[in-house]
Each structure stands twice: as C-alpha cells, then as structure tokens.
Design goal:
By secondary structure, the protein is mainly alpha-helical. The protein is built from 28 helices and eight strands. The longest helix has 31 residues.
Length: 702
C-alpha cells in the first residue's frame, strides 16, 4: 500500500511538472504542428476495392500483399476464455452491517462492560469499515486477481452455498480482521477481541458483488492484447456475390494499410523535404509569436487553441478535397475556389488574437494553395482576401448570431474578386462564374455553422471565456441575475457598481474589462441564501445581527462565498467566474465582527481565534480578481462615508489597498505597484461620479 501511495504521488508530481513547464508544452505543440503539417503534405489515398457492409460483392477481391489485420472475433474468443475462471465475488450486506453496528452501540450504552468505551467504539468503527470492504471469492478467482497484479488485501477465501440466506463467516476471516484492527488502531487487544466476539456470534447475509465482478472481468479482458490474423498475398478475401460483413471491411482496411506502408512514393528525400518545410513554417510561427505576440507565445492555452484550429482546418481542407475528387458528379470542376481561411480566421480572432489570425490566414492560404487540387494562384488570392475581411469583420463580434453577419460580409467581398477574375479574361458573365458565386455562398454558410458549433467546444475544452460568452452571461434575464435583482436588490445594485468600477480599472491597465464587469455581477450570488443578513438588503433599520453573537454573524457572512461557489457549480457557470467568487475576499479578516468579539473578551485578543473570522480564500490569482476585490471593498466602504469628496475617496481606497497589501492578498495576482496606482486612481474617478450630489430643487409655489 505504501508503494502504491508513493507511485501515486510520483505521478502527480510529474503531471504537475509537465503542467508548469511551459517550454516543454511549447515544444510539444510545435512538434505536433510539424508532424501534422508533414503528414498533410504527404497524405494521399491508397486505392483498394470499395465495399459496403450488407451489400453483395460484385467482384472477387484478392490480397495484393502479405498483411495482418486486427481480428476482433479471435480477440473476443480469447478474452472469453480468459474470464472463464472468474467465479462469484460476494460482500456482506451493508444494511445489516449498519443495523448490527447500531445494535452494538445500543448494547454498550445499556450494559457498559469493564472496558474503555472510547477504545470499544473505535474498534467497532474499524471492524465495521473492514467488514464493509471485505470481499469473498473462491480460490480460482483469487488466483486470477493476483495474476492481474491487483490487491487482495480485502479479499478472503470463502464461498457460501447458494441456498443459504445467512452464513457464519469463516474463522480465518475473523482472525485476519482482528489482526488488522489491532494493527491499524493500535488500541486495546481486549477491546478488539470483545467487539470481534460480539460480531462473529451472529450469522451474516452475503450478496453477490456484481460491480467487483464486472471490474475484474474488464481488467482481465484488457490484459488480452488484440489478436491479428495473417493474410497471404493471392488469398481470396471475398467471393463474387458474397455478402459483405464488418470482417471483410476490417480485412480491406488491413490490406490498405499494408499497401500504404509499402508504396515506393515515400522516398527519403521527399519525406525529409516535407518535414523541413513543415519545420520551417512552425519555427517562423514561433519566432513571429515570440517577437510580436508575446501574450500568445507564453500562453499554453492560446497556443493550444491556435494549434487545434490550424490542424482542424487542414483536416477539413483535406476531407473537402477528397469529397470533391471522389464524387461522381465531378464537383472539383464546379467548386473551383473552396474557402478555408475564413473558418480559421474567425475562430482564432475570437479565441486568441487578431495578429495571430492574420498569420494563420497567410500561411494557411500558402500551404493549402500549393498542396490541394485547385488553381493555386486564384485559390491563394481568394483565401487571403476573404481571411483578411473575416478578421476585420470579427473585431466587434459580441453575439454568436453575428458570426453569420461576418460570413455574409466575407461572401460579399468574394464577388468583386470573382468578377475581376472573369474580367481579366474578357468575360462578363458565364455559368462557371454563377457556380463560383453559389459555391462560395455555400462555403460561407457552412463556415458560419461550423464556427458557431465549434466555438463552444473550444471554449469548454480550453476553459476560455470569449467576449461572446461574457455578453451572454450579462443578460439580466439569466436566472441567477434575475433572482439576485428580486431577492437581494441591494446586492444586485452593489454588483452593478462594482462591475462598472472594476471594468474601467481593468481597461486602464490592459486587463479584461468585460470579464470584470460580468464576474462582478456574479461575485456575490451566495448572498441569495440569506440576503437579509447583509446590510445592503436590510430595510426598516432592523439589523438581524443584533440577535447573533459575533462568531455566528461571521459564519453567516463568510458562508456566502462557499454558497456562491456551490450555486455557481449548480448552474454550470464557467470555472473563471467561480474563481472570482472564491477569491474576491481572499483570506481577509471580517474585522467588524472580529473587533466585536475582542470587545466581548475585554480586549484580550489572545482569547479570540482569528482564523474563525477569516475567509477561507484562496487569494486573488489574477489581475482581474484583485481588481474586483478592491472595487468590492471600496464600494461597500464608501457607503459609510460621512463626507463625499475626492479626498475622502482617496483616503478610503488608500486605506483599503494598504490593508489588503499588508495581509498579502495581492501576492499571487502579479499586479504591479504601477498598475495598482492606476487602478486606485481610476476607481476614485469613477466612484466620485457615482456618488455625486445633486442640486436641491426648491419647492414649487402653489
């Protein structure tokens, strides 16, 4: 068990090192892109007889080379043979264990033995736990478990008769149980023996543990490697008129794979040239990102998104080429200008960066233009122009439906280019031009659908929140925001002001202002559970905290963070918003109730546990989180100011920020002193506007 624990810790540490090693991940992404590019340049189909399942073969099919194929039928037979030795696995009825444990506790309470009660209860709990974990099996099953290198610590040799409702568990089980309890508990031997004797005197119901049996079978089956069957060249794979089955399809795939491995077109120099070409592109991309897009270069998340979109675009392009080439209607002659660059441009624009999108458009247009079966020059021009137009049109996208408008603009940009191609040949209008107009329209419609469908997948996979998603979460009809405005209107108004303050402060230092506004709307949703315990929601001058002790009040106040986190998870809010909910108070002290508790202890701080009056954290880990913490504290504290002037606001925010900094709340958020100063000045400016005084109008004379 100790070895297993150490191995687990080793795996976790390796995983953690990989996660934090950004250079390693960048190299991995670069190699992945190089590999995919080289593969794309070399990919070509191997032609074999096309078969369809459940149809009749029109011709004989003979193996062209020696090859192997994965024989699923043989694999199933071998796995069935391997699991034949597995018998039934039994466990003790859990309900009966609970009932006997409760009865034991009751008996001990009534008839106290001459033993230490604490040791008795501890031993009883250990026995109950081990009995719940105990499994019984026959000798063959235990041997199979050992063969799979699985732990048999909780397994015991015992097979009850099928016709028995209740059985007496074997003495060997109770002896082993007693030994393990004494060893793990380190308690009194007499107490353990007393408990064991009480439990073993009864018969027990045992039942089949289907889950353990199923798990063991799965492990045994997984240990059997897939079997491969050899086929000799010249062997008949399928006869004329024979019905095609999945086995035939698998054999054909095996032959296709063997032919691909043996074809002579993969000359070493050609392979090296393709790898070098792909490597040059990736290296140029890395240099470009390092010099001009440092935010992307140092973000594994953004690099991962870029690589994913780039690779998916290559795959879509190759699949489209295959479809156009293989169709019986010769569509390759009709669809002369397939558009792939806009797809990558829109996605990378929304998820990563505009300059990265421009880089992608340029290189994708060149790569696809020289490798696909298209008119290279015109394809290059069309994809470059449409990609750039897509980048320009995507800059202000805030809603998913606007993607269709972007694709519409891109299609409109295609029209003058298509006309220019025709005019260059002294042709005003012809059927191919009409086909080009329709095909580009179809491509942009498909692009819009693909982008809208693929965008949420990338958002969830890479845990990135786009402006589109953020705007959707700002909808006041959102269930949480609607509840907040109705059930806790004071908190809702407070959140609106915090959102406004934090957004302007974030924009001033180059952070994500829109995210701050949205996160601020949700940062206090935990107050929905007890809204009237918070000052901003109290009406009528009555403070419910007058009925509570300072510690009780603190627990209610602090609980809104954990309750907000639970509510956010219940409504599937993104993890970035949940982080703000957890971090917006950091590990700060609820000083008001802490000082009250100290007063009740006659000023003796040693009698008050400060930890009970602190939020659980964590501390802010991003600039946006720190900004929201500052805005939240300042907005709340500003409500208690007697005099509303810029001077009082300045003193207030200086005091708030100094207190937070002294407690180390900004240690993990990478917020510099310069940025902190800008945040303070921006919040002061905007807070002064929100708290301005109006001119008192005289009463109208009657």
């Amino acid at each position: 068990m100790a070895n297993a624990g150490s191995r687990s810790e080793e795996k976790v540490s390796v995983k953690e090192r990989l996660r934090t090693n950004n250079l390693g991940w960048r190299l991995f992404i670069g190699l992945l892109l190089t590999f995919c590019l080289a593969l794309f340049l070399h990919f070509r189909e191997v032609r074999v007889e096309v078969l369809e399942v459940d149809t009749v073969a029109k011709n004989y099919v003979v193996a062209q080379v020696d090859f192997e194929f994965p024989d699923n039928e043989s694999t199933i037979i071998f796995r069935q043979d391997a699991t034949r030795d597995i018998g039934f696995i039994y466990k003790i009825d859990e309900k009966q264990i609970d009932e006997r444990s409760a009865k034991f506790d009751s008996d001990i309470s009534r008839n106290q033995p001459a033993l230490d009660l604490e040791q008795l209860y501890s031993a009883a709990k250990s026995v109950e736990r081990l009995m719940d974990q105990a499994r019984f099996a026959d000798n063959r099953t235990l041997q199979k478990i050992r063969q799979m290198n699985l732990s048999t610590q909780n397994y015991y040799l015992f097979t009850p008769y099928n016709n028995e409702d209740a059985v007496n568990l074997p003495d060997s089980f109770w002896r082993e149980l007693s030994s393990r309890v004494i060893q793990s508990n380190g308690g009194s031997t007499s107490a353990v023996e007393y408990v064991i004797e009480r439990f073993r005197s009864d018969s027990w119901n045992v039942e089949e543990d289907a889950g353990a049996q199923r798990q063991l079978r799965q492990v045994v089956e997984a240990s059997i490697a897939p079997k491969h069957t050899k086929v000799r060249a010249g062997s008949r794979i399928i006869d004329q008129g024979e019905k095609v089955t999945m086995r035939h399809m698998t054999i054909m795939q095996g032959m296709k794979k063997a032919l691909a491995e043996r074809r002579n077109l993969w000359m070493p120099l050609t392979i090296i040239s393709s790898i070098l070409f792909a490597l040059v592109i990736v290296i140029l991309g890395g240099i470009y990102f390092r010099l001009f897009c440092k935010g992307v270069y140092y973000s594994i998340q953004k690099l991962g998104i870029f690589a994913t979109v780039f690779i998916v675009t290559l795959c879509v392009a190759k699949a489209t080429e295959y479809f156009l080439l293989e169709t019986s209607h010769h569509l390759i002659e009709v669809v002369r200008y397939p558009l792939f660059a806009p797809f990558a441009a829109i996605l990378i624009c929304i998820l990563v960066d505009h300059s990265v999108a421009l880089f992608s458009v340029m290189f994708l247009s060149v790569i696809l233009g020289v490798t696909l079966a298209v008119d290279h020059n015109r394809f290059l021009i069309m994809n470059l122009v449409t990609g750039i137009v897509a980048i320009i049109a995507t800059r202000e996208v805030r809603k998913r439906k606007e993607v269709f408008a972007v694709c519409g603009k891109v299609w409109l940009a295609c029209l003058p280019i298509l006309l220019a191609f025709n005019f260059a040949q002294n042709i005003y209008w012809d059927v191919p031009l009409a086909a080009d107009v329709l095909s580009t329209l179809c491509f942009m419609l498909i692009t819009a659908v693909f982008v809208v469908g693929f965008l949420p997948i990338l958002e969830s996979s890479f845990r990135v929140m786009t402006d589109i998603t953020l705007v959707e979460y700002m909808d006041p009809n959102n269930e949480l925001l609607r509840r907040l405005s109705i059930e806790a209107p004071g908190t809702y108004q407070h959140s609106l002001v915090v959102g406004s303050l934090s957004e302007s402060a974030a924009q001033a230092i180059g952070a994500n202002g829109l995210f701050c506004r949205v996160a601020a709307l949700y940062h206090d949703i935990g107050k929905l559970f007890n809204p009237h315990y918070f000052t901003e929601n109290q009406v009528g001058g009555f403070d419910i905290h007058q009925l509570l002790s300072p510690l009780e009040s603190t627990k209610v106040i602090i609980a809104h963070v954990a309750e907000g986190e639970a509510l956010a998870k219940q409504h599937n809010l993104p993890s970035t918003l949940i982080d703000i909910i957890k971090e917006h108070h950091g590990t700060t002290l609820v000083y008001y109730f802490y000082s009250k508790q100290v007063e009740q202890m006659d000023g003796d701080v040693d009698l008050v546990d400060e930890k009970l009056f602190r939020y659980q954290g964590p501390k802010p880990r991003t600039k946006e989180s720190a900004i929201i913490m500052i805005a939240d504290s300042v907005e709340a504290a500003s409500r208690s100011l007697d005099e509303i002037t810029e001077t009082t606001f300045t003193e207030l925010i200086d005091r708030v920020v100094a207190d937070k900094a002294e407690e180390g709340q900004f240690d993990e958020c990478q917020l510099t002193f310069e940025e902190l100063g800008i945040v303070k000045r921006t919040i002061i400016k905007n807070l002064a506007v929100t708290r301005h005084l109006r001119v008192k109008f005289p009463e109208r004379r009657r």
